[in-house]
Design brief:
3 helices; five-stranded antiparallel β-sheet; 10 strands; globular; alpha+beta; about 20% helix; about 160 residues; OB fold (Dihydrolipoamide Acetyltransferase, E2P); three-stranded antiparallel β-sheet
């Protein structure tokens, strides 16, 4: 990650806190910083570990949430967890600025994505920071393109 310089300026005319981020480009480091600063309180999700024990994970640790029809799995850097909720229910709890549905069966965390690769055949390969990859459904490509072009800097 790039070096971050923090400067405080007193402005008694403000009621809220304004944060301005200056960088040479809007890359993944900038996106992560924006996401971290914009989350007032981290959302937590209750899941089951591989032994069936209940544990709580933070939204920002989620890489993706997938469903295979019978089970919903939540993937984090720490491992894969099972959820008792439906994919749709979990998606409704997640920050829509940070998470994006890429198929009927998967929602991904934009801050955990290293690279998007739109292929000539109209498919989208998504590579995560840890090297894992997934593919978006063709049906969702227009929705994904719209979201990514609104968020300047996401689209490669």
């Amino acid at each position: 990650m790039k070096k971050i310089n923090v400067i405080f300026e007193l402005d008694e005319t403000l009621e809220d806190i304004d944060v301005i981020i200056r960088a040479d480009k809007r890359d993944n480091d900038v996106e992560r910083l924006i996401c971290q600063l914009s989350q007032n309180s981290p959302h937590k999700l209750t899941v089951l570990d591989n032994r069936g024990c209940t544990c709580v994970i933070e939204e920002r640790d989620i890489i993706s949430v997938t469903s295979d029809g019978k089970q919903v799995r939540v993937t984090t850097d720490q491992g894969v967890y099972n959820a008792k909720q439906t994919l749709q229910n979990i998606e409704s709890q997640l920050d829509s600025r940070l998470f994006l549905r890429i198929s009927r069966f998967e929602v991904v965390n934009l801050a955990k994505i290293r690279k998007y690769d739109f292929t000539i055949g109209g498919t989208l390969r998504i590579e995560f920071d840890g090297g894992a990859e997934t593919w978006a459904s063709r049906r969702y490509i227009p929705i994904i393109r719209e979201k990514l072009t609104k968020e300047e800097g996401y689209l490669c």
